[in-house]
Amino acid sequence: MAHTSVTSGMEEALVLNRRRPGKLRRLWRNNKYLWLMFLPCLIYYLVFRYAPMFGLVITFKNYNLFRGVWASDWVGFKYYRMFLENPDFLLLMKNTFLLGIMNLALGFPAPIILALLLNEVRKAAFKRFVQTVSYLPHFISNVIVASMVIMFLSPTGGLINELITALGFEPINFMNEPGMFRWIYVLSEIWQHIGWETIIYLAALTAVDPQLYEAASIDGASRMRKLWHVTLPGISFAIVITLILNIGSVLEIGFEKVFLLQNPAIYETADIISTYVYRIGMEQGNFSYGAAIDLFMGIISLIFIYTANFVSRRVSETSLW
Amino acid sequence: MKLERLSLYHVVSTAVLLLVVVVTLYPFLHMLAVSLSGDAYVMRNEVTILPKGLNFNMYEIVLGDPKMWNAIKNTVVYTAVGTTIALIVTSMGAYSLSRTNMAFRKGLMMMIVFTMFFGGGMIPTFLVVRSLGFVDTLWGMVIPGAVSTWNLILMRTFFSGIPKELEESGRMDGLNDLGIFLRIIVPLSKASFATIALFYAVGLWNNFIYPLLYLRTPDLFPLQVLLRNLVLAGSVSSGDVTRIGGDNQIVEESLKYATIMVSTLPILIVYPFIQKYFVKGAMIGAVKG
Fold this sequence. Notes:
Strand content of chain B: under 5%
CATH architecture of the largest domain in chain A: Orthogonal Bundle
Radius of gyration of chain B: 24 Å
Oligomer: heterodimer
Distance between the termini of chain A: 53 Å
Helix content of chain A: over 70%
Shape of chain A: globular
Number of strands of chain B: 0
Distance between the termini of chain B: 42 Å
Number of strands of chain A: 2
Strand order of the largest sheet of chain A: 1-2
Largest sheet of chain B: none
Radius of gyration of chain A: 28 Å
Shape of chain B: globular
CATH class of the largest domain in chain A: Mainly Alpha
Structural class of chain A: mainly alpha
Largest interface: A-B, 87 and 89 residues
CATH architecture of the largest domain in chain B: Orthogonal Bundle
């Protein structure tokens, strides 16, 4: 009994052995060039996107540059506890959330409104001119935009303050007013990206069937009613997808511009998680603590986008996955 | 009644659109005008969008600075090398992902998309770059950004739109996948390559965070870092300012504007010609989500 089962097992293995290499070889033969072409990409993702995720193990260690990741001592959740007990923790969370939410609340509808206005322009040349001009700031670097903002708002000789003094008011030191920072950031974001972000909506608008407008006109619908019943439903897919993406990235505020616009005098509103991580990790060299804060926020951010997607799938049957 | 309301709408709408144009263009025109104007006019705040007392002193100072030329050279090198590498890696990756017959395609795609939602973050990435010995080298500027997931997916969408028949005709002629890509797909996709190349080039030209994180030696700094040090940290060398004389505050302002204009002009000049490529790229991204 045992004997037969062993031989049949061996036979099976032999059969498998005979079949498997053939299958593998065929798989290799059919795919080798495509895999070869994908290889640089694969290496890139493994090294620069996935290796750092495993590098997050340092958040549980007292990482030391000279001892390396593996030789450093384990410290468990020390750095997470440190962050939660940090007196700045709540402030940083508040600043990050508020800046992100304000940016969403003002920055999300702005390009939709601009796209709807552009869509109704009859003169093609004027429309193209406005579009071309409004896309431009999207290609200007954050360093230049931040420089322009700071110089125009400067209390000595800045464009805006000259206007304010010409009107007979006292100049305002905008960049040192904690209450101003969020407005400055959000408005400069809108200035930079409003035009570019209309593209997705303008593309969606061209797909709306003109016959629907004709039908609505025949029924005596006003401009507002056509907007409400034809245009907006026509681009709702684009709106929802953009909204999910924006909600998901509420906490992923671009590091560059906040970093360039902030100064210690306004940290109480301008300091957000990513700039704090930079100071703790890169400037003070506390890699483990900085990375722990980053991971903490990364997970909250992941929960955000997951929830946004889930809600959207339930409510509107539109989702990213 | 109805006609009147229509025209009111058009007046408001046109006014809003014109406001967008003015708010976008005015800053650039103003900076250009101030940087080209005589000190006396700048001091009296008389310059708006046309230069008064036209002169090129500020540009002579900015372009006479060897640090500026070095930074420009660095930026050009990073942009050229970075765009080339990114284009090769991205296009080959995107093509293989666009072939529905590639084994493990779904899994690889998932692996890529996941990185759009979660990542190791600034510090672990820095440690990887550092352990590869890329800190303070050209490679630190061009390799960590070699693939943008967004551009990869965009290019995959481009390639998916190419008719299968063309590929099959290549196979008839005995070409393998690599041959099909190089001899058939690449020549057919010049416009998409141009679009993606422009996206990468603008990103590399404007990049500030990589040099901030990965460069230490001032000789390697690109334009954006120099610009930040000159304009934001305000370290305009005082020697230059006294050489021109006049009110330091104002002269400094025109000097900074001239510096900004020098680093923005390349984009401002080529922008109208390449704009349609950018829009084409964004459209395809928009349609496919």
